[in-house]
Amino acid sequence: MATFYGNFHIHTILSPCADITMTPDVFLEYLNGVNWISITDHNTARHIELFSKILNKIDIKVIPGIEVTSKEEVHILVYFKNLVDAIDFGKIIEKHLIIKNYDPEKLGYQIICNEDGTFNSILEKPYLGSACDLTINDIYLLSKQYDSLFIPAHIFRFNGLITNLVFPPENVIIDAVEVKSDEEIQRAKKIGFKTFIFNTDAHFPEQLIPSCKIIAKDRSFESFRSAIIESKVIPIWQH
Amino acid sequence: MILEDLLKLDFIEDIYIYNNETEIKNGYVGDLLSEIMRNSPTSSIWITHQTHPNIIAVASIVEANTIVIPKDFEFENETIEKAKENNINLLKSKYDIFKTVGLIYNILFGE
Lengths: 239, 111
Prior knowledge:
The complex is a heterodimer.
Chain A: E1 2-10, H1 24-30, E2 36-39, H2 48-56, E3 61-69, E4 75-80, H3 83-95, H4 104-107, E5 111-113, E6 119-122, H5 136-143, E7 148-152, H6 161-165, E8 177-178, H7 182-191, E9 196-197, E10 212-216, H8 221-229, E11 233-235
Parallel strand pairs in A: 1-2, 2-3, 8-9
Antiparallel strand pairs in A: 1-10, 3-4, 4-7, 5-6, 10-11
Chain B: H1 3-7, E1 12-16, E2 26-29, H2 33-39, E3 44-47, H3 54-62, E4 64-69, H4 77-86, E5 89-93, H5 97-109
Parallel strand pairs in B: 2-3, 3-4, 4-5
Antiparallel strand pairs in B: 1-5
Helix pairs in contact in B: 3-4
């Protein structure tokens, strides 16, 4: 077993709400002390391949992920074993986004980058900050067509499962929940959650820091899954 | 007022009526279920965009007896089934949420 340093909720410049500096070159500059992350842009998988390729060069392993917004406006992190699965799932989610058109001047540019950090193109539609027309239960069923992990993000904050829906939905197996403090762990335990993940939900370069230690055999998806299930993910609180 | 007073009006479609004599004493508006849990008064009509089955559990806990959704929204089938099990009335307005709330407020508390 080895100890890895992770942060599994990171947005790139493609997310309209992320900072315009969240480009591959800035990731290379700021990611320090982390060797296992996930790229989890809002409702899209379009940037995972590019970032994985670049970060692999400095031995940072990337788990393909997406932060989906359900019809109830609940944010859910879905992690995939393979890039292909993430891309396939991402394409379906993009088609289900309610808001197709957006004004980048008001909502932020959705920029696709080149490897060197220069801007390649602007994704004009759909608006990635939109909710889907799929319920949380629909998204769960869709995610389970792949070998994925289903983890509600920041459950006690805005767009969090508990804030928006109070209870976990029936017929949904939640692999873990994302929390940000000891106090939130205790609250989550009272609701019945047993497994947790700790991330910074990075939208700015300063948030590209380790947020948890993971005790695992290696940095494979299976080891990620086992570490979560066996509670071998240890928080590094940022406050 | 009783639910029947509302059903007489042409902007409300009944999706599931448990009892049209249901007495409605208060009202509440919101989409965050945790906020409804904290603040909704009892014997309320609750106007919301949320249609997930969890709204029935929350309505039961806070003793809201009627839920209204605005135009262009649909209750999920499971939500309707749970409403039947929990004796909660479900309605749909033909107006957006702002106009719906204004009209219902006037009936409930107006002169």
